[in-house]
């Protein structure tokens, strides 16, 4: 843990000056009302604002649909029951041997669901349960470990933890300072490091959702901890990052028909849906702090999300062949080409669509027919525990039908995010990469045993797949029918490649 804290300090030296100066000098984070004295951010202000929570409660109390159907999904979930007992760990391991991260994501979703249920129903027992879970973890967790998948644990569970805690941050029994310390010292060091060094990989080795998960953690943690420089780094990376999670890299080609290719559509459906959900989460959290990334670069995310929605429903979409360099810096290397959009199962879904569709169609009044259709098909959206027992079913917090269904905005509401925003422009050292994929072919690969001082094996550890519908070929650098799948499985059980 000491090494990770030191690494975070080093990273901050690189980005703190630009980040702090940018946010202090009109970069787009204008002052917004905040519950904490001296805070630069609105609280609650991650995925849900005070207005959002009041809307949910009022609509459910009035018996309005589809809110009541969404709330019924929440109350039926076993994680949303008061009295859930946490099982905190000192070290959470994802990837390799000794994995125990299943405990963490189940407890996070129980905290989030109880916190959300409290705001809708007003029942204090659910807030008390959420607080107890969060306090238990912040009192014990000191580190994240594992192979490369430790970065997924940091990114996914860091942003989710922050969102769960944001729902109860004003509870008198919530240990706010200790929780902020946990986010800053356990999750942020890994998530801040990944976009800069990418686990020692070449810039395109890891697919976009690795970046996106860690970007979400950096942004959520920065808002929760009132760290303006951290938020600046996350926003700048979305716009200008060198890695594949930056918006123009994840969505590289825009077509005249208004759709834009999603890079991971050439990989497989499950990971493409994950990426859309993560980018939507990132945009929503930024929006609630007055930063409009949904509309950035002429609504580029809208065009990419529409593309994925059409494709995931079985529609024909174009795909420009993409060849990525892979491997470790100064180590083993290879190239991998995604040549076409992967096959899809129209029945596969994730609870990601309601948030995105409602933003574009209701907040902004834009045409987003594919998003609207796929959101309607997925409704009412559930959450963790409703999409299978494995980690893939817990990558999103969910319950979008309840949380994000909204009436059409007035002209004034549709014109800007909650606080006036201009463009955020900071400078951050950044890079990115990509994991292995199913619909790919390799032109070359030359492993080096000494790569990265023995870290070549760790670099290739891009996760196991525990979601059967998304599983590609298995094995160590399995070469079958011309497909080189650079995936090293170093342990059994729970992880999935992201």
Explain what this protein looks like in three dimensions.
By secondary structure, the chain is mainly alpha-helical. Helix content is 45%, strand content 7%. A hairpin with a 5-residue loop joins strand 3 (253-254) and strand 4 (260-261). The two termini are 24 Å apart.
Keywords:
two-stranded parallel sheet, mainly alpha, three-stranded antiparallel sheet, disordered N terminus, 9 strands, 498 residues, globular
Q: Could you outline the blueprint of secondary structure elements for this entry?
A:
Elements: H1 2-24, H2 50-61, H3 67-76, E1 91-93, H4 101-121, H5 124-138, E2 143-145, H6 149-166, H7 176-197, H8 208-224, H9 228-240, H10 247-250, E3 253-254, E4 260-261, H11 269-287, H12 296-312, E5 322-327, E6 333-338, H13 353-363, H14 369-378, H15 400-404, H16 411-414, E7 441-446, H17 456-460, E8 478-480, E9 483-485
Parallel strand pairs: 1-2
Antiparallel strand pairs: 3-4, 5-6, 6-7, 8-9
Helix pairs in contact: 1-7, 1-9, 2-4, 4-5, 4-6, 5-7, 6-7, 6-8, 7-8, 8-9, 8-11, 11-12, 12-14, 13-14
Low-confidence sequence ranges: 1-38, 420-457, 460-497
- Element order: H for helix, E for strand: HHHEHHEHHHHHEEHHEEHHHHEHEE
Order of strands, main sheet, comes to 5-6-7
Main sheet record: 3 strands, antiparallel
Give the count of helical stretches. 17
Looking at how many chains there are and whether they match, the oligomeric state comes to single chain
């Amino acid at each position: 843990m000491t090494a990770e804290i030191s690494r975070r300090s080093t990273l901050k030296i690189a980005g703190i000056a630009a980040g702090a100066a940018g946010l202090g000098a009109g970069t787009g984070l204008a002052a917004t009302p905040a519950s904490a004295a001296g805070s630069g951010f609105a609280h609650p202000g991650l995925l849900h604002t005070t207005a959002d929570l009041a809307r949910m409660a009022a609509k459910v109390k009035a018996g309005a649909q589809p809110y009541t159907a969404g709330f019924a999904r929440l109350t039926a979930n076993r994680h949303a029951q008061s009295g859930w007992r946490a099982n905190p760990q000192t070290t959470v391991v994802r990837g390799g041997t000794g994995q125990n991260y299943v405990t963490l994501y189940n407890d996070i979703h129980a905290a989030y669901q109880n916190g959300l249920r409290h705001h809708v129903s007003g029942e204090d027992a659910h807030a008390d349960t959420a607080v107890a879970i969060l306090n238990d973890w912040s009192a014990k967790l000191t580190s994240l470990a594992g192979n490369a998948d430790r970065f997924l644990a940091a990114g996914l569970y860091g942003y989710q933890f922050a969102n769960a805690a944001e729902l109860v941050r004003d509870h008198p029994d919530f240990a706010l300072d200790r929780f902020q310390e946990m986010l800053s010292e356990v999750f942020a060091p890994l998530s801040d490091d990944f976009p800069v060094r990418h686990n020692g990989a070449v810039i395109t080795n890891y697919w976009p959702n690795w970046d996106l998960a860690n970007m979400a953690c950096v942004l959520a943690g920065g808002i929760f901890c009132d760290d303006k420089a951290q938020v600046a780094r996350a926003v700048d990376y979305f716009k200008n990052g060198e890695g594949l999670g930056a918006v123009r890299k994840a969505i590289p080609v825009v077509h005249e028909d208004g759709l834009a290719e999603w890079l991971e559509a050439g990989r497989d459906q499950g990971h493409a849906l994950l990426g859309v959900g993560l980018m939507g989460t990132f945009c929503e959290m930024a929006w609630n702090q007055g930063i409009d990334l949904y509309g950035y670069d002429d609504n580029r995310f809208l065009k990419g999300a529409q593309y994925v929605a059409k494709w995931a429903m079985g529609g024909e979409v174009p795909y420009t062949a993409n060849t990525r360099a892979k491997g470790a810096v100064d180590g083993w290397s290879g190239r991998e080409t995604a040549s076409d959009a992967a096959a899809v199962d129209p029945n596969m879904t994730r609870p990601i669509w309601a948030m995105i569709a409602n933003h574009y169609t209701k907040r902004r009044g834009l045409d987003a027919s594919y998003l609207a259709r796929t959101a309607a098909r997925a409704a009412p959206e559930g959450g963790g525990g409703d999409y299978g027992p494995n980690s893939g079913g817990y990558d999103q917090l969910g319950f979008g039908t309840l949380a994000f269904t909204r009436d059409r905005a007035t002209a004034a509401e549709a014109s800007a995010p909650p606080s006036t925003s201009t463009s955020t422009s900071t400078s951050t050292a950044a890079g990115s990469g990509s994991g292995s994929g199913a619909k790919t072919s390799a032109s070359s690969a030359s492993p080096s045993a000494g790569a990265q001082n023995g870290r070549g094996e760790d670099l290739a550890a891009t996760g196991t797949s525990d979601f059967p519908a998304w599983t590609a070929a298995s094995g160590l650098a399995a070469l079958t029918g011309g497909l080189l799948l650079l995936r090293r499985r170093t342990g059994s059980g729970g992880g999935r490649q992201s």
